[in-house]
Design brief:
Layout (H helix, E strand, L loop, with lengths): L1 E8 L2 E7 L11 E11 L1 H8 L17 E2 L5 E2 L4 E7 L8 E4 L6 E5 L3 E3 L6 H4 L2 H13 L7 E5 L3 H10 L6 E5 L3 H9 L3 E3 L8 E6 L4 H10 E9 L22 E4 L15 H11 L9 E6 L3 H8 L12 H4 L2 E5 L7
Parallel strand pairs: 10-11, 10-13, 11-12, 13-14, 14-15, 16-17
Antiparallel strand pairs: 1-2, 3-6, 3-8, 3-17, 4-5, 6-7, 7-9
Helix pairs in contact: 3-4, 3-7
Amino acid sequence: MAWQYWTEAARRGGWREVPTPHADPDSGIELRVTTTASAVSKGTETLVHTGRIPTRVENLMRAPHQLGDFPFPVSYGYLGVGVVDEGPRDWIGARVFGLLPHHSHHIVTTEDVHLIPDGIDDHRALLAGAVETGLNILWHQPPRFADRVAVIGAGMIGTATALLATRMPLDRLEVVEIDPHRRALLTDLGFTAVAPDDACSDCDLVIHTSGNQAGLARGLEITGDDGTVIEASWYGSDSPSVPLGADFHARRLSIIASQVGEVAAGHRARRTRAQRMSAALAALNDDRFDSLITGVSDWTELPRVMDELSGGSDGDGCSSNLAQVALCHVIDYTGAHAR
């Protein structure tokens, strides 16, 4: 048998047992991928788990291999790795990454998945989605030589983006984060990590990924005249208050929306999504990305993990801190294939 994770109602998810799928041996392009690991994309998936996907963007927010419709029941997710065990001969045994939901098996085509480069293990490969998002953010408004850049919010997306930005010839790169434990992690990675009140001003470019309106407000404050804020947070059904009064217009600030669903406008005519993903996977050849893996749970624990990441309890009636400390939380499927 095979297994699919479904969100059945707000804050209630579980596994459904389904027949084991098989690839069509005559198709020439169909593959079966047996999942080895998946990861939770905390920002979007907790909005799905709590039923906060706005009706007017339901179609835009569909994952490529989503089952069901928003709000419920829905089988969602887009960070999965596995091994091809059925399909064309030259694909058998290949390790692949795909924008796949939390399932034990997937039937996909050769165009739906991407080969994982040698030297990158399955858990690090799960960060390909975050790195692809970071790459797209940097394509929206590429930092220039000797620019002063700040990244606000050291979650999975913010930290991945900052790691990519370290490869650019910047004058200054700060990561602004309210949590002292995350700042310590960032310092160990070689970043200048600061609390919001200590952030330098006069930035040429500020990248906001915190998902909190206070972070966006602080981003506008530390952006220099004629500077740009890239807004990479998504707020679901919430409506953040954006401080566009005071000196916003007088200082001629710009806010650019970034969303990974399309290749950034500056590159869209010259890069496909597949090429962007290939670049992201290649960028993972950097051991620092392993620091973003902050926890691993057995596949059977996914319902509890999803609830804790959404701010629920830890099962003992106590508030869990998983939501605060998690960057990339991995779900391991080793036991799923033994049943």
